[in-house]
Amino acid sequence: MTDKKFNFVLLGFTRYSVEVAPIINAYAVEDFGCDGVEEFSLEEARVDEILGERAYSGGDVPESLIDEVQAATIDQDNFTYKYFFYEGDFENNSAEFVFFVKENYPELSLYTAQKDFEDWNAEWKKFYNPIFVSENLEIIPEWMALTHVNKSKTQVYIYPGMGFGTGTHETTFLCLVLFDQIQNQLNSTNTCLDFGCGSGILGIAAMKTKHLQTHFCDIDRSAMQNCTQNLVLNFEGENLHGTELIIRDRYQPKKYDLVFANILEHVLISEKPVIVDSIKKGGHLIVSGILNHQVDNIIKNYSHMEKISVATKGDWSAILFKDIS
C-alpha cells in the first residue's frame, strides 16, 4: 500500500464556461472512472477577507455566513474542479479523461499530477464538514463523530468515499431539506428508494429518522461499496431486515412511498419511466442534481406529478413532487 498512488486533474472554468462543468463531471464519473469530484472552495484567507472580524478560526461556520460568502463571490471569474482517480486502472482513466477534455473543451485550463496514496486522506477529508439540515437531522463525517457537538435529534454518520464528492454537497443538502419538510407524513410502515444512492446518505437519513424500509440502487459498484460501508457505520449490530442494495442493471421497479433521485438532469429524463414506476399512489419524489435553469424542464417532464416545492442553494436546485394519479 505504501507505493500506491493516485492521480488528480484540475480544470479551470470561467463564469462563461462553468455551465458545462456538470456535463464534464458526469462524463468523468460515468465514462472515465473518476472516483470523486471536488468543487472549488474558497481559501481561508479569502474567507477572512470577506468576513473581516467575523471570520471563524475554527468550529462550524453558521449557514448564514456561508450564504454571505457565496453571495459575495457570486461574480467571481474563475472556478476550479478537482477530479480524483485512484481505483483500478486509474492512470489510464485519468489520461483518457485529460484527452477527452483537451479534445472537446480546449478553452479550459488543465493541470494534472500524481501523489502518494498516503496523502489521500488529507486531500479528501479537508473538504468535508458537518451538514446541519434542521433540528431533526445533521450529517457528520465519521472522523468527527467523537468531537462534533450534536445539534440535532438525529445524526447520520458518513464516510464520504468515491460515491460522494463535494460536487453533490449542495444537492444532497437540498434533498435533505425537502425530506425534512415531509417527515411528519412518514412512519415506519412506509418504504423508500434511494435511486442513484452514491454514499447512501439520503436513504440512511430516511432509515435513521423515520425507520423507513429502504432500498438502495446505483449504477456504480464502487458507490454501492461505499453505501454498504455507511450502513455498517450507522447500524452496526442492528437488524436491517428489508434493506436491499441493488445494482442498476438488476433493478426492477417496485412501489415506494418515497423516492430520492439525486442525479443529473439528463438522467432524470432518461430514467423517468423507471423512477415514475417506482412511486406509490400518493407517494413523494425528491429530485436533485439539477441546475437552477433546468428546474422548469424537469417540472415539465414530470408534469403528471404535483410540484410541492423547490429548494435552491447556490447554482443548484431540488424539487419535491407528489403523485396525484
Question: How does this model look, in words?
Answer:
This protein has helices at 21-31, 44-51, 63-72, 90-104, 120-125, 169-181, 201-210, 221-235, 265-270, 272-276, 295-301; strands at residues 5-14, 36-39, 78-85, 109-116, 131-134, 137-141, 154-158, 191-195, 213-218, 244-247, 256-262, 279-291, 306-313, 316-322. It is of the alpha/beta class and 325 residues long. The chain has 2 domains: 5-124, Alpha-Beta Plaits, CATH 3.30.70.120; 168-322, Rossmann fold (3-Layer(aba) Sandwich). β13 and β14 (316-322) form a beta hairpin. α6 packs parallel to α7. It starts with a strand and ends with a strand.
Overview in brief:
By secondary structure, the protein is of the alpha/beta class.
Describe how the helices and strands are arranged.
Blueprint: E1 5-14, H1 21-31, E2 36-39, H2 44-51, H3 63-72, E3 78-85, H4 90-104, E4 109-116, H5 120-125, E5 131-134, E6 137-141, E7 154-158, H6 169-181, E8 191-195, H7 201-210, E9 213-218, H8 221-235, E10 244-247, E11 256-262, H9 265-270, H10 272-276, E12 279-291, H11 295-301, E13 306-313, E14 316-322
Parallel strand pairs: 6-7, 8-9, 8-11, 9-10, 11-12
Antiparallel strand pairs: 1-3, 1-4, 2-3, 5-6, 12-14, 13-14
Helix pairs in contact: 6-7
The averaged pLDDT comes out at 83
Low-confidence stretches: 41-47, 53-61, 162-168
Q: SS-based structural class?
A: alpha/beta
The largest sheet has its strands arranged as 10-9-8-11-12-14-13
Count all strands and give the number. Answer: 14
At the fold tier of CATH, the topology name of the largest domain is: Rossmann fold
The outline comes out as globular
What is Rg? 19 Å
The CATH architecture of the largest domain can be given as 3-Layer(aba) Sandwich
State the CATH class of the largest domain: Alpha Beta
Integer tally of domains: 2
Q: Cα distance, first to last residue?
A: 54 Å
